[in-house]
Each structure stands twice: as structure tokens, then as C-alpha cells.
Structure to design on (133 residues):
């Protein structure tokens, strides 16, 4: 069983570093890789909005840059009063390194959370396996 609270705590730590001067919406993420290592990330905004990077992708790209390729779980925290789901681009990046059973932990209000599988938040995901058919 995964330690959801630990992943949420790490996601909140990541959120502290968010750079969100435009939206004022700070997001943090913590991704647990297959080897047991946790990487944190935050959203990093830019005056040119297209250059903005989400917390989930920041955490995943840190893991990938260190040679890890398989996501076991990812925790995401944003607003304190509602669950913050990954955006479409982040869901596609998660699809590249996860499977349909990868757990997505959505947190709010200091460690209140819900858990979804990746298949629940992106049914019919476009994946590299689809390209091989």
C-alpha cells in the first residue's frame, strides 16, 4: 500500500516553491517512481503563458532526467477547497510513463484526499502502444 499522506506532504512542499505571479494559483506535485524515489515539482509561470510549466510535468521531467521511466503514483495539490486535477497536457505526459492503474492522489485542505486510477481520469489515453498497432 502506498503512503498517500507522505506523497501529499511532498506535493505541499513542492507547492511552496511555485512561481505563479500571474494566475496566483499555486500547484505542487510529488511523483513516486517505480524505484521508490519521490520527485517534487511546482508550477512555473511565464509572461508568455505557453512557456509555463505545470507542477506535474516539472516533477515528472525531473524523474525522467535522472533515468527513471515508470510512474507508480503522483500526488497533486492546488486549491485548498477543491481537488486539482492534472490538465490535458499533463495527462498526456503521465500517459507516456504510467499505466492505466497508476494512482493519482488529489489533495486538498491539509491532507484530505481522493485517489483515482489513471484510466479514470483519462480513459482511452493515446499511448505509444496505440502507435504500434
Amino acid at each position: 500500500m502506498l503512503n498517500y499522506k507522505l506523497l501529499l506532504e511532498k506535493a505541499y512542499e513542492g507547492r511552496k516553491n511555485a512561481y505563479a505571479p500571474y494566475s496566483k494559483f499555486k500547484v505542487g506535485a510529488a511523483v513516486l517512481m517505480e524505484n521508490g524515489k519521490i520527485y517534487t515539482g511546482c508550477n512555473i509561470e511565464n509572461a508568455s503563458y505557453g512557456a509555463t510549466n505545470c507542477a506535474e510535468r516539472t516533477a515528472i521531467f525531473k524523474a525522467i532526467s535522472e533515468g527513471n521511466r515508470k510512474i507508480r503514483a503522483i500526488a497533486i495539490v492546488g486549491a485548498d477547497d477543491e481537488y486539482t486535477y492534472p490538465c490535458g497536457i499533463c495527462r498526456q505526459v503521465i500517459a507516456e510513463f504510467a499505466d492505466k492503474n497508476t494512482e493519482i492522489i488529489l489533495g486538498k485542505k491539509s491532507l484530505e484526499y481522493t485517489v483515482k486510477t489513471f484510466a479514470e481520469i483519462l480513459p482511452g489515453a493515446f499511448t505509444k502502444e496505440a502507435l504500434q498497432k
